[in-house]
Amino acid sequence: MSLKRNTDQKSKTLIQFYDEAKNSDNQFSSNLGELMINWIKEIDSEFKTTEIWGLTSHYHLILQNENDYTSPNYVVLIAGHDEYHLEYLIPESSQPWENAYVKGATKSLEEAMKMLKTAMRESRGWIDSNEL
């Protein structure tokens, strides 16, 4: 598996974390959990060698290129209301201000994966990946 939960959050895997939300009585949380599990499974199926580390913050999934919670938050995945939302950090040399992000959303998992690959490439967090 290429997407791993940061070891500082070792109590549950990413799937277990979002499965808890999926099994919630709250409709929003349940939908969010299901969308995130689908997204994580798709990431795992498409990225076989690229190392991606995930941190959860509330229900956001923060993607980093190393197992260090202080690393840059290159990509942030958010789901809810049947939509996939994504943000990526603009490289420092191109930022109009400190910590500037690009945001986008889609209802399609296929499109969300295309957006994720673009975000990973454009953020320059995974410059050595041959899967982008």
Count of DSSP-assigned helices:
3
Strand order of the largest sheet: 1-2-3-4-5-6
* Overall geometric form: globular
Fraction in beta strands: 25-35%
The Rg value, from CA coordinates, equals 14 Å
Q: Biggest sheet, in brief? A: 6 strands, mixed
Q: Stretches where pLDDT falls below 50 for ≥5 residues?
A: none
Total number of beta strands = 6
Instruction: Summarize model confidence as the mean pLDDT.
Output: 96
Q: H/E series, N to C?
A: EHHEEEEEH
N/C terminus separation: 16 Å
Helix content: 25-40%
Given helix and strand content, the structural type is: alpha+beta
Summarize this entry quickly.
The protein has 132 residues and is of the alpha+beta class.
Describe this structure in words.
- By secondary structure, the chain is α+β, with helices and mostly antiparallel strands.
- The protein contains three helices and six strands, in the order βααβββββα.
- Strands 1-2-3-4-5-6 form a six-stranded mixed beta sheet.
- The longest helix has 20 residues, at 27-46.
What attributes does this structure have?
132 residues, alpha+beta, 3 helices, globular
